[in-house]
């Protein structure tokens, strides 16, 4: 009986030798197709490569007219070759000329051949070309021959990806892999970034393709699969992630794939055909991705990204690579491209090298976007397909103003954006000149423009932005970037550094706000929740785990010795929570007094107004605290019943709608009525048009990302506040009809040349 695997193994061994020889690209391709034809007893073997203009060009052939090389062409979808490229599926025909897609190319002399086997040349599920064998006799190629040709196609895909074939491309033409491509999605943070792609979950480039010992490679695969399965089981059992809902579905999908016998069998088959374990994963991943791309079932298409992530995890297991490797070798102008990521993951990257962030998913109010905004980098989201089209090191432009990205841009486009960056830099100069000017409206009303912060790296921006103080210091970011709970001494040191950097300007510290989508991997008490955003988080969690809150309060009291401490409680739902927190604070004050510690000169306790229940006890709330801060992101989410992380709803409702502005007006009026200071520190404060609305509603203190202070101040100094207040008197409580409020506000600004 013939060993059907011996043919592929012999072929791969020959290809390995060819790849190591010092050959010119064309000679290497010519010898590859010659060896494939000989191994498969085929009279023809041809390679077509996909160009950027969607044309498949004949790059090498054995058996057809050699003069047709680089002249014979088929458009994507044209002929059998074009059909294979368009569908990313092989074709195995005993009589090719009877197929409805058959197209005759007279320059090739292929009319005398009947049997036809063609496979796509795939990389990460993306078609780069087509590899074909043909015979005069009518025959159906065996499964092992199909497998051998697909494996060979993977080797050629790596040649294309590494740029080996670029020298064979005629002047003025580009291969599809290097094709410029643009995506349009949503703007999550303004700004323009020019740089080079860093894939957050990078595709591993497999360089060791051919194995010496199949049995040894299968052992390596088994060991890595075992480690992978254990890590997934561990994440589910120990609850190290917020794994309810969508998170749990992803992990369950990972577990399903990791234990799928069909997947493992295909990996083992590829190894027995001569590939290394990692090359087998690359091949099977690419084949499956190509098949899933053409499925119509949306659920199965969504699972494609789960499979990609799992395969990449397995590749990293096999190649012994940790997640820190990419961050350590970042280019100086890195633009992170990711399907999605957490805020802590973004903070792992060195800020001085980041020029932008591209997300396939996400929403403008997701925490990673908020952190990116605080870091002052442009963010473009909803860029579906960007990850699979991008390669590490590709040139890329992120247009955070238009919500667009440009991969591998043409020189003229790059030059235009470089000018745009220079223009923005000149505009930033104008904003810098405003730093020392009073923060007052055109008719002389003072408005405090504060900044949001959360880490020591944010502190220099206090002076650079000309902020009046820190309206929100997110203490949880220190916890999110640490591998264990920060010790009391580390917390105290950070809080003291913040106050020192503020140089007497006010700082409002928010107590630790974890839970929901802000998960600490080392926090073992994470619970299963149907809706984490409405669950055990923020003040609810810390009151149930008072040790966390006591440690933080003690660190804050000690750090603020001799200075004022402004402390804010997140996600307060009822006044009893404020009373409980005040008891914990008073107990810590008594403890430190007993040991003669230097205490704050004054302690002001505030509450974040994020939960709608407080809207029905506004006067009681104002009397129970020293100040109130409106968390407009969560308040909007809960008032409008819209999940701020849901990409289907991210643009559906407007925070400048009349109903929500009425809610904000009630809060501002309650503050004036009770002489309780009210600040707003959500994302509304950071856009000139919404900041203008807030000021018109009565807010005299708003907090935003440092990069937003300049544009908001430029608006503020040109704002005739008395006219805006009259505008709201006429429009806010009127029946909702006609133009939306955003359009009315824009017209108000345009009529008075207010820069928005």
From TrEMBL:
Its cofactor is Mg(2+). One of its GO terms (cellular component) is cytoplasm. InterPro entries: GAF, GAF-like_dom_sf, PEP-util_enz_mobile_dom, PEP-utilizing_PTS_enzyme, PEP_util_C, PEP_util_CS, Phosphohistidine_dom_sf, PTS_EI-like. Keywords: Cytoplasm, Kinase, Magnesium, Metal-binding, Phosphotransferase system, Pyruvate, Sugar transport, Transferase, Transport. It comes from the Bacteria. GO terms for biological process: phosphoenolpyruvate-dependent sugar phosphotransferase system. Its EC number is 2.7.3.9. Pfam families: GAF, PEP-utilisers_N, PEP-utilizers, PEP-utilizers_C. It catalyses: L-histidyl-[protein] + phosphoenolpyruvate = N(pros)-phospho-L-histidyl-[protein] + pyruvate. GO terms for molecular function: kinase activity; metal ion binding; phosphoenolpyruvate-protein phosphotransferase activity. Residues 24-170 form the GAF domain. It is found in: Cytoplasm. Belongs to the PEP-utilizing enzyme family. This is phosphoenolpyruvate--protein phosphotransferase.
């Amino acid at each position: 009986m013939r060993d059907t695997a011996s043919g592929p193994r012999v072929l791969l061994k020959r290809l390995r030798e060819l790849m190591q020889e010092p050959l010119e690209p064309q000679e290497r391709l010519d010898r590859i197709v010659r060896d494939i034809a000989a191994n498969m007893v085929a009279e023809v073997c041809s390679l077509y490569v996909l160009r950027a203009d969607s044309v498949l060009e004949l790059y090498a052939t054995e058996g057809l007219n050699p003069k047709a090389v680089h002249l014979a062409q088929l458009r994507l979808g044209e002929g059998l070759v074009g059909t294979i490229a368009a569908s990313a599926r092989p074709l195995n025909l005993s009589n090719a000329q009877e197929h409805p897609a058959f197209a005759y190319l007279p320059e090739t002399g292929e009319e005398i051949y009947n049997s036809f086997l063609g496979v796509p040349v795939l990389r990460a599920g993306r078609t780069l070309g087509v590899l074909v064998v043909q015979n005069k006799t009518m025959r159906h190629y065996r499964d092992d021959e199909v497998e051998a040709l697909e494996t060979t196609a993977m080797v050629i895909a790596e040649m294309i990806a590494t740029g080996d074939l670029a020298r064979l491309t005629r002047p003025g033409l580009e291969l599809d892999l290097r094709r410029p491509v643009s995506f349009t999605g949503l703007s999550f943070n303004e700004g323009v970034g020019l740089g080079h792609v860093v894939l957050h979950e990078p595709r591993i480039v497999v360089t060791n393709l051919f194995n010496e010992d199949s049995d040894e490679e299968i052992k390596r695969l088994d060991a890595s699969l075992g480690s992978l399965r254990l890590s997934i089981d561990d994440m589910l059992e120990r609850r190290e992630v917020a794994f309810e809902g969508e998170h749990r579905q992803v992990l369950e999908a990972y577990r399903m794939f990791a234990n799928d016998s069909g997947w493992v069998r295909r990996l083992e088959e590829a190894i027995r055909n001569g590939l290394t374990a990692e090359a087998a994963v690359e091949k099977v991943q690419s084949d499956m991705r190509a098949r899933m791309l053409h499925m119509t079932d949306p659920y199965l298409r969504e699972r494609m990204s789960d499979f990609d992530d799992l395969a990449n995890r397995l590749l990293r297991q096999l190649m012994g690579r940790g997640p820190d490797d990419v961050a350590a070798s970042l280019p100086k102008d890195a633009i992170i491209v990711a399907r999605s990521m957490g805020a802590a993951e973004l903070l792992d990257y060195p800020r001085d090298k980041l020029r932008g962030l591209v997300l396939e998913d996400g929403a403008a109010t997701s925490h990673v976007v908020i952190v990116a905004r605080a870091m002052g980098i442009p963010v473009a989201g909803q860029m579906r397909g960007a990850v699979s089209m991008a390669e590490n090191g590709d040139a890329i432009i992120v247009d955070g103003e238009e919500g667009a990205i440009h991969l591998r841009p043409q020189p003229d486009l790059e030059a235009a954006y470089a000018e745009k960056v220079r223009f923005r830099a000149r505009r930033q100069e104008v904003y810098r000149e405003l730093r020392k000017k009073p923060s007052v409206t055109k008719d002389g009303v003072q408005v405090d423009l504060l900044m949001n912060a959360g880490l020591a790296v944010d502190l220099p921006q206090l002076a650079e932005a000309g902020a009046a103080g820190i309206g929100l210091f997110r203490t949880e970011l220190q916890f999110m970037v640490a591998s264990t709970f920060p010790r009391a001494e580390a917390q105290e040191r950070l809080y003291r550094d913040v106050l020192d950097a503020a140089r007497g300007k006010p700082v409002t510290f928010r107590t630790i706000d974890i839970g929901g989508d802000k998960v600490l991997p080392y926090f073992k008490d994470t619970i299963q929740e149907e809706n984490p955003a409405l669950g055990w988080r923020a003040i609810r969690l810390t009151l149930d785990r008072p040790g966390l809150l006591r440690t933080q309060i003690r660190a804050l009291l000690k750090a603020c010795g001799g200075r004022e401490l402004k402390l804010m409680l997140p996600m307060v739902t009822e006044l009893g929570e404020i009373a409980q927190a005040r008891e914990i604070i008073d107990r810590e004050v008594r403890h430190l007094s007993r040991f003669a510690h230097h205490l704050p000169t004054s302690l002001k306790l505030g509450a974040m107004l994020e939960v709608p229940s407080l809207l029905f006890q506004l006067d009681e709330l104002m009397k129970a605290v020293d100040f109130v801060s409106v968390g407009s992101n969560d308040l909007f989410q809960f008032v409008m019943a819209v999940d701020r992380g849901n990409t289907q709803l991210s643009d559906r409702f407007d925070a400048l709608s009349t109903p929500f502005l009425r809610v904000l007006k009630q809060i501002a009026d309650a503050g004036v009525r009770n002489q309780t200071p009210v600040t707003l520190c959500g994302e509304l404060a950071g856009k000139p048009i919404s900041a203008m609305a807030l000021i018109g509603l009565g807010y005299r203190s708003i907090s935003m990302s440092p990069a937003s202070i300049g544009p908001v101040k430029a608006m503020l100094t040109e704002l005739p506040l008395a006219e805006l207040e009259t505008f709201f008197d006429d429009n806010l409580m009127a029946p909702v009809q006609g133009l939306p409020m955003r359009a009315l506000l824009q017209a108000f600004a345009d009529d008075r040349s207010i820069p928005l």
